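Subject — a protein and its fold

Tokens — whole-number codes for backbone shape
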Amino acid sequence: MRITLNLLFLLVSITSSYAQTFISEILENFNNNTIEYVSVEKLNDMGKSLLLDAREKEEFEISHLKNAIWIGYETFEIARVLKLVPNKEALLVVYCSIGVRSEDIGEKLEKAGYTNVKNLYGGIFEWKNKGYPVYDTDNMETQKVHAYSKYWGSLLTNAEKIYQSKKETIGQKEQ
């Protein structure tokens, strides 16, 4: 029994550190570091900030950080954010799956005059990998996270991975 628990602990540790290393490498390759990162630990300890979810709507509907506002990526409109957040000095923390799309959106927010924009390092994947809670559209805690694709899903190690929209999942259950 003790050997089994030790092997399980080792496997979880290796998997988690592998995902962390891989996230770091992807962020180095895809991002320009134009938006300052905030770690999941620091975000969890931070005071008042507005969380902006830069993923697609179907990803947000599966789960998101508590009180996050969906702003999208492909459908992002700065005019909508300007209405939702008129204070351009407000602390905005943008996130996506791992932090690539959120950097793009962060750049657009800064270009629009927002002065206190941060990018959540590792995004919702890192948040969930570290054991922090995520919530569904009914504001109930869930273990589900939209994994975007099998490739990106390999970076998500501490959640139930979902690869389809909530509507598709509901439709399959009804059949």
Observations:
- The first strand starts at residue 37 and ends at 38.
- The longest helix spans residues 2-30.
- The helical segments are 2-30, 40-45, 57-62, 78-84, 100-111, 123-129, 150-153, 166-174.
- The two ends are 42 Å apart (CA to CA).
